[in-house]
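Exercise: predict the structure of this protein bound to zinc ion.
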Amino acid sequence: MRTLFIDTAHRHLTVACVEKGSIVSLVHLEAFKSQSEKVMSAIGDCFAQAKWPPKSLQAIVLTQGPGSYTGVRIAMTIAKTLASVADIRLYTTTTLQLLAAAKDHCFVMLDARSSRVYGAHVHQGQLAEEAQIYTIEQVQKIRQKNKELTFFGDLHLIGEEDRYEDIEAGILSCIDRAVRVNDIDSLIPLYLKSSEAYKL
Amino acid sequence: MSDKSLICAIETSCDETAIAFIKDGNTVLSNVVSSQIDTHRAFGGVMPEVASRLHIEQISLVLKESLAKAKVHMDDVDAIAFTQGPGLIGSLHIGVLASKTLAWYFQKPLVPVHHIAGHIYANAFVTKLKFPLLALVVSGGHTELVYMKEDFDFEVLGTTQDDAVGEAYDKVARVMELGYPGGPAIDALAKQGSTQYVLPRIKTEKPLDFSFSGLKSAVLQLILKEQRGQRELNKANLAYAFQEAVLDELLLKLKKALEIVDVRQVVLAGGVSANSRLRERLTSMMENYPDIALSIPPLWCTTDNAAMIGAAGAVAFTKGIRADFSTSASAGLDL
Ligand SMILES: [Zn+2]
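Solution:
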């Protein structure tokens, strides 16, 4: 199945054409606050490189969040638009799964701003629980309690160097674990914070 | 003009998710608008993050419904026109991205449209625009006098120095406890009112600019004065006084502009053009200008919708105006 993978929720923009379990083409670049300007050209480039006509697309795997609110809506707008006009299947995964890739056992975290992170434990290659919001102190406590646990993601928030798994492994682990969306109209981002907090 | 074209138009600049299919620049095949007004009413105004969330919830439904109603296929479309700005950035992003996605998948040209151009070209559904023209643009976000020498040539002669006229209505409606949106509420209440209160007239530095914030403060002062004097406020009379003062300001500046530019047509545009008293007073004022045609947009095309973006987009398309994949939404886009 010709599958487009898209993640626009993080500082990096990730777009890949994937078929039969292997990555045919990939664009992975720094796109802080410029996801919406870069994403369509990235998709165009990926398809050109893969020599796929746009209409040969059969499925999209997208990260549903958590991450930047504006960011997650970018991939989702593309996916919902395409699924409205063509017979394209949608599957969702999470940004944390992408960062953790197929790591057996780890804690993965993503900047949620305001000294907080989106985080989750990973067991046997997948999220052991739903992503949650942690304060930096909470993450540091987890760090101190589990000295042998590997941490992945935006580690600069806890005073270490950022650490990301191999992006290709991340994409493939997401595709393996993605969940089919049956009703594309009710698909919404994983915000984790309620919009009440953004009243003004 | 009236070149043959089929335009798919997308507008998401504020709180309506809207997609339309427009044939030959002035025939509406479909015009689907999903309004968020009920949600924003609960907040007393448009909340940007909430608006973005509702757009992403609505976009696929609106697209499918609009396509089905138009009975066309995306392959038959000549171009995708979209509102590039101005507006709420998070809201604009959704429409811009949906447009780029369709343009990529179906290999169609992208035509960027300024939201105000859309409001002006809403008049194409009732008249053939005659240039040069002068547009009075009045909405929740804009109050502008726009001179157009020809198609898609815009010169802003005057603009508001503070609040937009629709914004002034909303704020005054809030202090008068009339709910949101304020325009229709004040317009309806003013019909039962008459001359009682006097509100000060506005002065602006530039003769064609507008200002409404002084008027809003004057309304507040008046309410407080009545409270202090323990007199019961006649809300209908206050609504009347406010509305007449706003319209005096709008029509005075329009008159001044007509002394400066020679035009064949005056067009009204924007959400506030639904105001019944504005329509009445503008029509009677324009009777003094027998050589200048007046166009007032149909009521269905006064508030934000995608049909108007399609009408403007059809003209922009034939003019060769294009966007590409790197084109981004612009919250403060200039006309
Ligand atoms: Zn508008």
